[in-house]
Amino acid sequence: MSDHDYRPKSKVGQWFNDRLPLLTLANHLTDYPTPKNLNYWWTFGGILTFCLITQIITGLTLAMHYIAHADMAFESVEHIMRDVNYGWLIRYIHANGASMFFLAVYIHIFRSLFYGSYKAPREIIWIIGIIIYLLMMAAAFMGYVLPWGQMSFWGATVITNLFSAIPLVGEGIVTWLWGGYSVDNPTLTRFFTLHYLIPFLILGLVVLHIWALHVPGNNNPIGIDIKKPSKDTVPFHPYIVIKDGFALLMFMIVFAFFVFYAPNILGHADNYIEANPMVTPAHIVPEWYLLPFYAILRSVPDKLLGVVAMLSAILILAVLPWLDTSKIRSAVFRPLYKQFYWILVADVLILGYMGAMPAEGLYLLIARVATAYYFLHFLVILPVLGFKEKTLPIPLSITEPVLGGSPNLAAARIKESKIE
Amino acid sequence: MKNLYKLFSILIIIIVPNSYSFAAEKVEYLKTDWSFKGLFGKFDRASLQRGYQVYTEVCASCHSMKYLSYRNLAEKGGPEFSEAQVKAIAASFEVTDGPNSDGEMFTRPGKLSDKFVMPYENVKAAQAANGGAYPPDMSVLVKARGGGVDYIYSLLQGYEEAPSNVSLDDGVYYNKYMYGNKIRMSAPLSEGLVEYGDGTSATVEQMSKDVTTFLMWSAEPHLEARHQMGFKAIVYLIILTTLVYFSMKKIWSRVKSEI
């Protein structure tokens, strides 16, 4: 919080602000000094806020018409699709909105990985982000159960069954989660309740995420600490607002394409068959955004260890600030890390693809190698790289490479030293 | 702008391999020119009406369509029968209603607001009448099958003599598009099975196309509205994006920086 000496111009404003400094907050948000070299990868924070709000609004509307009962859920969804005014639109926005949300969050996370945004002093922002991501997965999983189609039912069965891998108490926990001896009406109603609750928890955490961000300020593509406010920063409004707005609109075009022209392409056809406990689908596949973790789960032959591996794959991210030993944040100045970064991106995409394939033969083998590499990246490559890597010289300020007139930093530096 | 290209290529890389429309054994489905595909796709009204005829005269003897009401047949974007026609259609079905003031159930002719009458009382009755196989409800059938309309269209024309290495039980038929090739439904369509009022010749291919179009509508009754709104929404977004882009350029021209 940089600017506490703000005073509203009007008397009424001052009176109000002395009692509740909302205007100070608004002033802080508009004046918030932001690095001027942020690229479009930085616009996904705003896009994610949009996604969350969209999901909450469409979700509230759906909840007015949805019936959380095993005998009526599927029918009530069809009622929404057919008879509720623009129900089809609201439901397709909500269903595709989940995919868009994850698309944006993955870009957001991988941006952080590339530019080292998780490193000191931003560890808390990062850890809150990982908690948000975990809650998103929980919300998305439970949301997918609500239409009570075949994939809802069997997805819920498979995922909740994972808890039975816990020694001794596992079976008891599963029964407790289900509220019975199989996935049934009690499971549906509690999933609905939690699906309704989690977005608001996420909203609260998003506030903390942004608050924590506003303490050190944004990281930036060259990953150096900058003076704020200075020549290197611009006020959030209007510069970042309009840029985020532009990126958001681009994102909305993609979003609209899915909603209006391919609303079911990201879902699974089996979910348009009403849940039937007597018939198991040929392939039980989670939604695309969970596939990499599903691949990790299946690549471990032991059930308990598989669950442990899957959870560790996510939780390992929380300790990333301490696993990455490099002092340099941005991959721009880390030639080796940059290459390993792209290998990791490819590795996660491969895992995602393998998660969609049957766990057998070559698919399983590739999934196993990719799983091993995933952990290798975080547990071995990153810690070692910090000590071994020869990093490039970093500029002193954002303005330097820009004013140097050349994207080549070395050239810019030579020029500068000559001037001196 | 260079970054935007990067961004979009990444989007495509992420989305393409994940639209997993793979099947264990891939068969090439029969293709036809569906009028409802594409940005401006609309249903062929005459085909929908013929499709309803095929559904009601052939499919409906075993397959229910429980999420549709008779009124839907007159609604915009559907077969668009006239209201009088639909009233007549509805009235041709007996609907169980009640209880009346004496506590008795009674039957009456169907009304616009009634749901499509089901061929069987319940799933068990349907199974009992069909050798243990349940004829699936057809309301959202097209969306419930991986290949969608192409799959249904092909399946209806996919009946063949079983190859010599495949043995079939009684009441099981060979269909080259069916998952596992074995199907409990005998070939439902045959040349001239229905008599089209508009003089279209009722070939198996024609009937398959018509009834599949009808099933697409029953699964997505608001498809036309969706396509129309989608086009408007995207054009609007593109115009707005362009305006915002130039505003952004203007605002950022005050700062020495690349955006």
Oligomer: heterodimer
Instruction: Report Rg of chain A.
Output: 24 Å
Residue runs with pLDDT of under 50 for 5 or more positions of chain A: 402-406, 415-420
Helix proportion range of chain B: 25-40%
Uncertain stretches of chain B: 17-24
Q: How many individual helices of chain B?
A: 7
Q: Greatest interface and its residue counts? A: A-B, 55 and 53 residues
Distance between the termini of chain A: 36 Å
Ends apart, CA distance between termini of chain B: 7 Å
What's the pLDDT, averaged over the residues of chain B? 90
Strand content of chain B: under 5%
Strand content of the residues of chain A, in percent?
under 5%
Number of DSSP strands of chain A? 2
Determine Rg of chain B (CA atoms, Å). 24 Å
H/E element string of chain B? HHHEEHHEEHH
Task: State the secondary-structure class of chain A.
Answer: mainly alpha
The largest sheet of chain A, given as strand count, sense and whether it forms a barrel, is: 2 strands, antiparallel
* Largest sheet: number of strands, sense, barrel closure of chain B: 2 strands, antiparallel
